[in-house]
Fold these 4 entries.
Entry 1:
Amino acid sequence: MDQDDYEKNRNYWKYLKAKLKREGSQLGSGTTQLKLLAPDGKKRQTNVLDAAGIVELAKQFPGKKANRFIEWFINGEDTIDGKSKQKAYALFDSSLLDSIEVGTVKGLQQIHAYLFGGLYDFAGKIRQKNISKGGFQFATAIHLKSTLAVIEQMPEGTFDEIADKYVEMNVAHPFMEGNGRATRIWLDLILRKRLQKCIDWSKIDKYKYLQAMRKSVIDSIDIRTMLKEALTRKINDREMFIKGIDYSYYYESDGTVEQMPPGLQE
């Protein structure tokens, strides 16, 4: 039966509410009712979802179209992530790539400032507040300056030394936001300079990576093994760099949907 988009969405919404009611659930706690103009010209009470609710609803539509919608909705060109991602893409062809200090705190600040300049007022600035995630508190702000100075002096002669330096910088989390995206580029630049290698991030599963990073606070063996197995000598390959950016931003997605990098969905 041919239906326009309005009818399809309306009928699905009715079906979903009826289905949840039969299951003993009730949809509505995450919505707000607003009077919106209906096709008949009258303003009617309408359930309106916030951004998180829209993502949750999209999970009910399996397939490529839903994933593409979420990719657009979360990382659209008008979002902070979307804009910083476009900047990250351009970094490969930018002269800035060769001028970034490798392995230093200043170099990491340069990367962060480039990715988030004009998007966050703290772009490239070391945080002055304490932050935590998932119950874990990163390096305290009062000791952050001295912590970063110690990390900067860590050796970079072997892969294990570089990986340990990366882990310590992650524990420090020097910025209010955008640490992972900036630090993964920082890591690749160190590997390029010291070992003439970089990470093929497409070989690293998101959830295994996040689990290994959480565990690295106590034991870094898992993340070191994971990164080592993904090493490649394609340091001058633009496609490898772009793919790495896609995966880096994918790692930072909030997990409400299996948001694979563009072109990799089934």
Note: The first strand starts at residue 31 and ends at 37.
Entry 2:
Amino acid sequence: MSDYNGFIIPECFIDTRLTQFLLQKRVNHQHSCNNVVKVMCTKYKDDFAVGIIDDDKHGVSYLQEFYLEGQTKHLKFYTHNQKKHFIITVFPAMDGFIMDCAQEMRQPLASFGLPANLKDFTHLTKDEGILKDGRITKLLSVIQNHDEIVVLSKVLTYLMQSRYDATSEVIRTLVN
């Protein structure tokens, strides 16, 4: 992974790992929803940016400036009402999303040497070591064809390639 795409800004280690896996590019990892929004609103204030955040108990007020373009069971895709800013939220959080995808594809986490319960899996995904963990790579390789991961990949790829030319209409088509 050589190319760096600082304008793609995931919130935590497992979000970063999945995003880098799907795009085969390094991205701008941040440690919280608030930091993702801060980077979008400062460094990329008048530039293109894509934030990827968990849709958990903490609301992000910046989302009030966005339109919901579409959603899947775990993902919501938003576009800013004036800027070329996009936010993808993951419900309830990325680790639960990945576990659900694996379960729906009948791929037990234990078969990858990973914890089978959410609490232990989440504990593992909060560590920076997850970025190079071969077990996660194997898991992502197996579940990358899950319908929702395919949608996420298509939207991220489209946004990365189109940037300033990206449109709400195309995002809605990719999601719905």
Note: The longest helix spans residues 147-162.
Entry 3:
Amino acid sequence: MLKTIVVGLDCEEFSERVIKTLQTLHLNSLTKIILCHVLPTYENYGLEDGDKPHPSWESLYQHREQQLKAYLAQLQGSVIEIVAGDPAEEIIRLANIYQADLIVIGTRGLKGFKRIIESSVSGQVVTDASCSVLVVK
């Protein structure tokens, strides 16, 4: 029986697929689901695209929080965690804190050289997590 599941969401279009996949699992009503999103650190926010205007870090946080709250209604027994840092490291850290039995995460489907350059969060989570990982394509 799965007692605790950490769900890493990036709040992009494939987050819907992750939620739908999660809903297909036969979960006990006592299963705790932690919906998490990892923001860039405040200091690093927006440094890659210096020419483009960015919303404030606080408004980004609020926007992501609203998106995650929309999923709360669909998933009984869930809570939200929004943290800042490296996505793979933070998802694994939360899984360790909550002693998760499973991590559910999406993948962007990167291949070849692009996967090496942009790094794969899901690949790093699969490699480094101490619990099972379900990767949703």
Note: DSSP finds five helices and five strands in the chain.
Entry 4:
Amino acid sequence: MNQQERRQFVYDHRTCVFGYARKDHGPAMTIVYYVMNGDEELLISTMAARGKPKAVERDGRVSLCILDEQWPPTYLQVYGNGVVDRDPELAAEVLERVIGLMAGADVPESRREQIAEMAREEQRVVIRVRPYATFETPPRHVYQMSDIDTLTHFTSTSMPW
């Protein structure tokens, strides 16, 4: 994949495995929805009391494994620097966008205040992730035994966002 194809893959999808360094134990991973903010940021809605914002405030280095949600699995790893944004209006906006993604439809005007109230009650924040690199390994799948005759493997490397 070239740079444009990697970015398009991120734009075309909506879920990722969010990886971050925990204070204790090993790295943590959780599946989250994300939305794009232009070409340079991925936005993740979460509650301030959860581990993700606390970890990002300690160490902003995060990884996102963008999932295509289809079988066989295809993914693209994105490395970025995260910051926690506590702006309540942004938190409500991102939550609204995520709910729209989940529902597969635009949120009607009649539901927007309800979502804003939900964001306030849950003390929602936004994790802004600014990617700096991607890591892609093309999938190798075996659909039938004869596929192993032409199956190839190679190593990949990090590439600029």
Note: Strands lie at 15-20, 28-33, 35-37, 41-47, 61-67, 75-85, 124-135, 158-160.
